Amino acid sequence: MIRLTPDATKKGELDAALARLAESESRIADYEPGIYTGPTMTEQAFLAALTGRTDDLQLAVEALRATGQPFCLIGGLAVNHYVEPVVTLDADFAITGAVGLVNALQTRGFQVESFPHSINARLEGSRLRLQITVNSRYGDFPARAVAGRIFDVDMPVASLTDLVQGKLWAMADPRRRASKRAKDRADLIRICESHPQIIPQIPPGLVAEVDDLRQTG
What we know:
This protein is α+β, with helices and mostly antiparallel strands. Helix content is 40%, strand content 21%.
C-alpha cells in the first residue's frame, strides 16, 4: 500500500487524479481518496495520473542539461529522494546560470515566465509546476549535488545538508505563503525523523517536533 500525504491545498487535485487512475487502471484492487492499494504501477504511470503527462519532468531535465550549466533538484520533490515520498506538483531546481535556459524550455513546449532570479515554466497539458532558481544563494548547491532518480528520471539532487538549508531559508521568508511554510516545516520533521544527524542543523525553538526529537535522541 502506498500512502499519499498531499498538501491540504492540493488534496482535491490529488483525489481527482487518483480517481481518474482508478477508473482507467483495471489492475487497481482498491481505492480510497488519498490511498492507493493494489498492484505496483510504474512510476511514469503514477506521474501521468498526477500531472497529466508522462514526459513533463523528463523534458524539464533535458532542457536544464541542454544549457550546460550545473543544476540540481531542490524543494519538496528533492526531499522525496531522502525520505518516504509524499505527493507534490511542484518541481524546484537551482541552476548556476540562465544562458540558453528559456530557449531550451520553449523548444520543448514549455510556457515560460522570467523573473530577475527565477524562471517559472509549465508544459501544455501538465499540472507540474517548474520553478528554477538562477544563480542565487542556491548557486553552490549543484556542486554538492548527488545522483538521484525521481519518477524514473535521472537527475542531480541537492545534498541533504543543502536541502535542509534551503528549507530553513524558505521558512524564514516573510513573503512565503503560510501553507508553503507549513509544508517546509513538515518536510524538516520528516527529514529529521529519518536522518537524526541533521537535527543539529535545525535551530532550537524553530520546530517543536524537532526539539522533541532532539530531547529523545
